[in-house]
Amino acid sequence: MSPETERSLFGEILDWMLAPLLFVWPLSIAFTHYFANNVANFPYDQSLRELVGTLSRQVQLVDGKPVVSLHASTRAMLRADELDSVYFHVLTQDRKLLAGDQDLPIPAFAGVAGVLPGEVYFRDMEYKGQDIRVAYSYIAEPQAPVEQWVLVEVAETTEKRTQLANRIVASVILPQFIIIPLAVMLVWFGLSRGLRPLTRLRNTIEDRDPGDLSPIATRRVPEELEPLVEAFNEMLERMKRNVEAQQRFVADAAHQMRTPLTGLKTQAQFAVRETDPAALRHALRQIATGVDRAGRLVNQLLTLARTEGSEIAQQKHEPTDLAQLAREVVEDWVIIALEKRIDLGYEAEGAAMISGNAFLLRELLKNLIDNAIRYTPAGGHVTCRILDDGSSILLEVEDDGIGITEEQAELVFERFYRVDDATTEGSGLGLAIVQEIASQHGARARLRPNPRGKGALAQVAFVAWHPPLPPPPPPDDYAELYRQSPPLGP
User: Fold this and answer.
1) Which of 109, 187, 213, 235 is the most buried (most CB within 10 A)?
2) Percentage of residues in the chain with pLDDT exceeding 70?
3) What is the pTM of this model?
4) Which DSSP string do the residues of 356-424 spell out, in sequence order?
């Protein structure tokens, strides 16, 4: 597997589930050991407490002087332990041994300040190379000075405690060696079941026919996968539109290019056989005219293909000044209109903002003006007009050419349909391009007889664009806030 290849989702989830478990397990053992020691200390501390109490009862203060009467049974009880060694002693405040082991350590602090007589305290320490647990208490008369005290200590090694703590830890940890592998198996099984919809979705996509661009059903798709499937369906829809546009382009190109190419071939064969220079020049002019006609057809086919399925058609619309665009396009066509002795005019009042694609809108204007000039005879007039009523922007291209009937107005936006006479040339794609671009901008193009006289009038109505309104400013003071607030009372 290359470094750039992503790991499987199954392995990634499994790692993120098991890695914390492997991290928590040692912590669990440490906490278990800590609490096991506390649990193991409790019963044996109680035993030590009782021994300290028993030994303390053998100490009496007679005229302020401690006297220890330690019976043999008491000594036997203190020493009776099969696993641990038990040590004890009774010391006066001047460290005089009254009974027990002389070298047993005493508490680190001196005196009994802050310590209650008769209360049993515990500490851990090392004695003769062994860990011991020490219970100790101070004995003093109620009215005696704090310096007159007797220390009673009983200590034992920690073998029993260690064994009990180990048994507690073992009873908790050993089952985990069974539970954790079982948990891993259950996690593995749960992930396999949980990721089954992904496998089913993958199989559904793999089993589809390569040409099948229909959307994937979301009926059995989990909620978390629905956004993914919906995004995939949107991509399929875009691909379907692109494929359909390409198929239409190929079909249209194959149908429309056949005739001009056949004519060019015929003219070329005629020129090859011709010996008369005048006739040869005429044939060459016919070939040049045919090449121009074929070039224009190819350009319009390419424009239609780009309009329908390209990335340009899918770009986000932005605020665009349609009046400025129209003025620029009209300026580009002035020379062509003058060559045909046509008066090309432009009318607009200020900016006309719409939301659109500037490239496509320019193509729409070029085709409308080209169509009007093409069907207007010499000496005629063509006017590009922008009208703004506040809510909509109306684009009009008016001419006084050959005109159009109401029946033809319903058909002129179909591909390759031409309202033609003997003197005009065209491919019948210009108005189809106009309608396609208009539909992408939420508009619809119309061509109808000119109501002002002869000729035709093309119209495309766009929704006007207005900048969003800023939020209202907050009140300047509490009085204004109170004035705008509704009364609370009736």
Assistant:
1) 213
2) 76
3) 0.46
4) E-HHHHHHHHHHHHHHHHHTS-TT-EEEEEEEE-SSEEEEEEEE-SS---HHHHTTTTSTT-----TT-
